[in-house]
Design goal:
Elements (H helix, E strand, L loop, with lengths): L1 H17 L1 E2 L4 E2 L9 E10 L5 E9 L6 H14 L9 H12 L35 E3 L3 H7 L12 E3 L5 E2 L1 H15 L7 H10 L13 H16 L41 H20 L38 E4 L10 E5 L14 H6 L12 H10 L9 H24 L5 H17 L6 H4 L2
Antiparallel strand pairs: 1-2, 3-4, 5-6, 6-7, 8-9
Helix pairs in contact: 5-8, 6-8, 11-12
Length: 460
């Protein structure tokens, strides 16, 4: 059953997300989320917990597959430029394409970043403080040593990484997201007391497909900005009040399970909110909290963060996902110039725009999240970074075809089944769901924990 579900999802992913018809062996008319696929390859394997997954490699039409093709594209664009320089460069087109696919920023922050797009001299956009009327959120320079420590397995506390330039309130990543969510919930008069349960229902599919914020018309965008500006002006005047109280709510309490603020703060609620704008804010809050549950990396890290990641000659374990991410490129860039106080060298990789408050958030594809709301990540690989991924995807899988090995695994399956039956007899209060889940998980682990196997063998 698990293998059949995996195969169904793989087919769904190829057809609806990638845009590839497996039966016809060609791309679907119009392509998929990433463009039109020319060809692909994928290898199926399992993890220790019997989780089936595949590593895929897709070639896209009208996209440079090698640096030679990329350089030819750059030269062609240079020749097309006119005196007004109106033809976007290859780098700009590449970054625009990446921004159209993925984003490593909480959607609720779109309400706080200066919509005019004007950047300060240090390329940091204005991020309005959710606690005072005139402040802006700035990142705190914690130094390279603290950044290093936060990427190790010795972290046992969440550090404050940003503060308001006026009221001087400091925020952890969690607190900043909560304060911003609480502000827009009060502005739109949205009851978020059951946000946690509502989002879990949406993620499970029991409440329908996950709603994404709908695109607003220009008139609605202007009206939304008026509503938000009205909310900002109703905040405490930080020039007079040097500190601002911590408002609980907007999502949940510190346990993220309850919420005392139901969005009924009369000081920040305008008279009327159009339904279109209220629905947009509500779906943005849902998506933000769902990303918190599925895409936010734990500041304490996980065991998988340090899998096969011990540096030779070093005792310290570093997070192999390189999180938290302290890079402050406030617009997507192709190539990143290292800072003067770092040992990094110039690279030609693509780096997504990343604003303050998103240090622990991995990149997500919103349309993929709507179709399959679960943890995922997306990165655009170039140069040396792509070599390992190509080799890993097309490697020879450890296929199990020995009769002796299959017999041994099947016998292990049967023995485990007998043990499960004895355990269930000792726990008569277990429900059918509890018995089925326990039996299925342990049997699949018994069958797939020894070798990397194909999904057909996992279905035995």
């Amino acid at each position: 059953m698990a293998a059949m579900h995996f195969d169904d999802f793989a087919t769904f992913f190829n057809e609806k997300i990638v845009g590839w018809d497996k039966k016809k062996g060609r791309a679907i008319d119009g392509g998929g989320l990433f463009g039109t696929v020319v060809a692909y390859t994928a290898g199926v394997e399992t993890q220790g917990g019997a989780t089936l997954h595949f590593h895929g490699l897709f070639w896209l039409a009208n996209f440079p597959a090698t640096f030679k093709e990329e350089n030819a594209w750059k030269q062609e664009l240079e020749q097309q430029k006119d005196e007004n320089n109106r033809v976007p460069s290859f780098e700009q087109q590449y970054c625009d394409y990446a921004d159209s696919v993925a984003n490593p920023m909480y959607p609720v922050y779109e309400y706080f970043v200066d919509p005019s797009g004007n950047l300060k001299e240090d390329l940091e956009p204005i991020f309005h403080c959710p606690c005072c009327a005139t402040g802006a959120i700035k990142s705190i320079d914690i130094g390279l040593r603290a950044q290093f420590i936060l990427k190790t397995d010795s972290v046992n506390f969440e550090r404050e990484l940003s503060e308001c330039s006026v009221c001087k309130k400091k925020f952890t990543t969690q607190n900043l997201r909560k304060e911003c969510s609480a502000f827009v919930a009060r502005v739109a008069s949205i009851d978020v007391s059951n946000l946690h349960k509502r989002v879990l229902d949406l993620l499970s599919g029991s409440a329908g497909s996950f709603p994404l914020p709908r695109a607003l018309s220009d008139a609605s965008k202007a009206q939304l900005r008026v509503v938000l500006n009205d909310g900002f002006t109703r905040l405490p005047n930080a020039a007079v009040e040097s500190t601002c109280s911590h408002r609980r709510g907007g999502e949940c309490s510190s346990s993220d399970e309850t919420d005392d603020d139901n969005g009924d703060d009369d000081d920040t609620v305008p008279a009327t909110i159009p339904n279109e704008i209220q629905d947009h804010i509500r779906s943005t809050l849902y998506l933000t909290y769902a990303l918190k549950l599925s895409q936010e990396h734990s500041f304490k890290h996980h065991g998988s963060c340090f899998k096969r990641n011990n540096k030779k000659g070093k005792r310290v374990k570093m997070c192999r996902y390189n999180l938290p991410d302290f890079r402050r490129n406030f617009q997507t860039m192709l190539g990143l110039v290292p800072s003067e106080d770092s040992n990094d060298t110039f690279d030609d990789e693509l780096h997504f725009k990343r604003v303050v408050g998103c240090e622990y958030l991995t990149s997500f594809v919103k349309y993929l999240f709507k179709a399959a709301p679960s943890n995922h990540d997306l990165a655009f690989l170039r140069g040396r970074s792509i070599l390992y991924c190509v080799k890993y995807t097309v490697k020879s899988q450890e296929t199990v075809d020995s009769v002796t090995i299959v017999d041994r695994l099947v016998h292990g399956f049967q023995r485990a089944l007998q043990r499960k039956k004895m355990l269930e007899e000792q726990n008569p209060d277990w429900t059918d769901k509890m018995r089925g889940a326990s039996r299925l998980h342990s049997l699949l682990y018994q069958l797939t924990g020894v070798h990397e196997v194909a999904s057909t063998l996992a279905a035995l």
